[in-house]
């Protein structure tokens, strides 16, 4: 049944998509190139090639943890696995790079006036750099851990990038000298392979890297269907201590303080920060009549979202067990909304006034206006977006 459904989906979606992409690819060869391709800078080619080079790393040895005892005793098998992994990884990278270069060939030939011989030299150089980068990356991951690993990986990435840019810009493509550095990379790859084969006592590191690679592949396959697990943090980023935010000890103020700390300590902080950043960009890009409407809409959206988070906190099972939770929610609603809205509205209002005045002194009235807007929105939001105070506990008979 699933195979039939997949075949039908491929028949109705995949085949037309392949035909459309093929028609677009042929059009890049025969028709006039789009204007945006002709306006691409010359640095776009090495930048794209560097992305292909850095995001195609990785060696998979296909080692199982149950085979560790056998591999410790039979060193020849481990050497064979390493050699096969290097060959398989290199061939896979070569095929991937060849397909990408073929897809980009009309842009490189017609847009950047490159010859087919230059494309062949570029592909050979990419393959040579890819092999050396894969081996160097694997050798570093096996030998080092934690912060030393990231330092060495950064140094190797910088070295590979500098060597690739020097090869791309300093090579005379017309005289065929572009083959020198790729041959040097192949020689370096042979040295790295010999160094890896001489290393002993790295089987546990190999197993850890194998599990990391498989975990990344599994996460990539399941990213669209299963949400990633939330990382566990021992301590929150904000409000790590137990210091008080408000001087008053009234139940409403204490409930407001507890709600604010819970909001900024939880997962809502990322959404809040992202909304604030996008809101600042949304009010500074459009002209004055439009950004005012956008600003008012953002204030309403933020007030509604924060108010829903506040009500969700008081409807939790823990708050439902406390006595006087309903009265505390009613007494703390306005104060809680003011505290939660203040940081975001302050930043968005400052950006709004800066976009109007086009000067840095516009931030000063923006701060005063942001404070006033946060007070007004915090007072009106519980009334505008209120659906009644409810508790999760059962009513008493």
Describe this protein's structure:
The chain is extended. The longest helix is centred in the N-terminal third of the chain and has 37 residues. With 397 residues, the chain is an all-alpha fold. The chain has two domains: 190 residues, no CATH class; 134 residues, no CATH class.
Give a short summary of the structure.
By secondary structure, the protein is mainly alpha-helical. The chain has helices at 2-30, 35-38, 44-54, 68-73, 75-111, 116-143, 146-170, 180-198, 203-222, 251-265, 268-284, 288-314, 317-321, 325-357, 363-384. It is extended.
Furnish the topology, listing elements before pairings.
Layout: H1 2-30, H2 35-38, H3 44-54, H4 68-73, H5 75-111, H6 116-143, H7 146-170, H8 180-198, H9 203-222, H10 251-265, H11 268-284, H12 288-314, H13 317-321, H14 325-357, H15 363-384
Order of helices and strands: HHHHHHHHHHHHHHH
Instruction: List low-pLDDT spans.
Output: 1-5, 388-397
Query: What is the helix tally?
Result: 15
The count of domains is 2
Q: How far apart lie the N and C ends?
A: 53 Å
* Mean pLDDT over the residues: 76
| Percent range for β-strand residues | under 5%
By secondary-structure content and strand pairing, the structural class works out as mainly alpha
Give the radius of gyration.
Answer: 30 Å
Helix fraction by DSSP (H/I, runs of at least 4): over 70%
Keywords: Membrane, Transmembrane, Transmembrane helix
Transmembrane segments: 7-26, 38-60, 81-107, 119-138, 150-170, 176-195, 340-363, 369-389
Pfam families: EcsB (PF05975)
